[in-house]
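[recover] target loaded
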């Protein structure tokens, strides 16, 4: 199984500017992500950035770096530019690992790539995990996904799907009063993607889909245009990314408690 990891790393984060360079246990965060990706079975790991400061930091620890446009509307657009610049073939598989996931388990990277191999009709592969509490289900920052019997995604949403019609007949309940139906399972989408390069080439030509604009979820553009997205439960639970200063502070404290065990 041969595939390539691309790690997009932007400096201009709205909530935490410069976070790829944030120090964690003596290394920039992007280096931790890169090292986790190198523990996977990927044949190549590339960092894609639009900032020279990130480029210099990555070169200092020996990573392959590609400079990309600062004007991309989505991470998928940035991946397509990398694939084009590095002349990836249409049949190649690329796994997008977020640059703010310093504890990403390498097993998840391999799992996504393997699922693209196992499901040749899928253009994209991604992961999910079960939701067991109502607070998570009703949180609009948590993306939910519904799939068919083969694991192909029907829809992604910030809303609680599927909706418990009989349980929640009075409309939107208060979270405190919610009891999750036992007749179905709910799943949170985990934002790691495997793509066929042919899909990337098509994706950048498609206009934004109405559902994508409404939900602010770019994977809905692929579904809108008929691409199949395979979703499987993650083989291990990911630690989560770094979006805010509070996330960064917790991660630093965790590294201090664990010492060198993350390396």
């Amino acid at each position: 199984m041969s595939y390539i990891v691309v790690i997009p790393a932007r400096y201009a984060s709205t909530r935490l500017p410069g976070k790829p360079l944030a120090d964690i246990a003596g290394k920039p965060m992007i280096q931790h992500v890169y090292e986790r990706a190198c523990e996977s079975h990927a044949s190549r790991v590339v960092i894609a950035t639009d900032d020279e400061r990130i480029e210099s930091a990555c070169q200092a620890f020996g990573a392959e770096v590609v400079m990309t446009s600062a004007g991309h509307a989505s991470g998928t657009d940035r991946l397509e530019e990398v694939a084009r610049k590095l002349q990836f073939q249409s049949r190649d598989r690329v796994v997008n690992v977020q640059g703010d996931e310093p504890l990403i388990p390498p097993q998840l990277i391999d799992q996504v790539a393997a699922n693209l191999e196992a499901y040749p009709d899928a253009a994209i592969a991604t992961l999910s995990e079960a939701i067991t509490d109502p607070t998570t289900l009703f949180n609009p920052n948590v993306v939910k996904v519904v799939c068919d019997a083969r694991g192909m995604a029907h829809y992604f949403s910030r809303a609680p799907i599927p909706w418990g019609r009989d349980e929640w007949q009075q409309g939107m309940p208060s979270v405190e009063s919610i009891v999750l139906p036992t007749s179905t399972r709910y799943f949170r989408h985990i934002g790691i993607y495997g793509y066929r390069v042919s899909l990337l080439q098509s994706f950048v030509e498609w206009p934004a889909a109405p559902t994508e604009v409404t939900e602010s979820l770019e994977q809905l553009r692929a579904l809108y245009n008929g691409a199949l997205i395979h979703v499987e439960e993650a083989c291990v639970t990911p630690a989560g990314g770094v979006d805010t200063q509070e996330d960064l502070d917790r991660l630093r404290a965790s590294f201090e408690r664990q010492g060198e065990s993350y390396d």
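[recover] notes: The mean pLDDT is 92.
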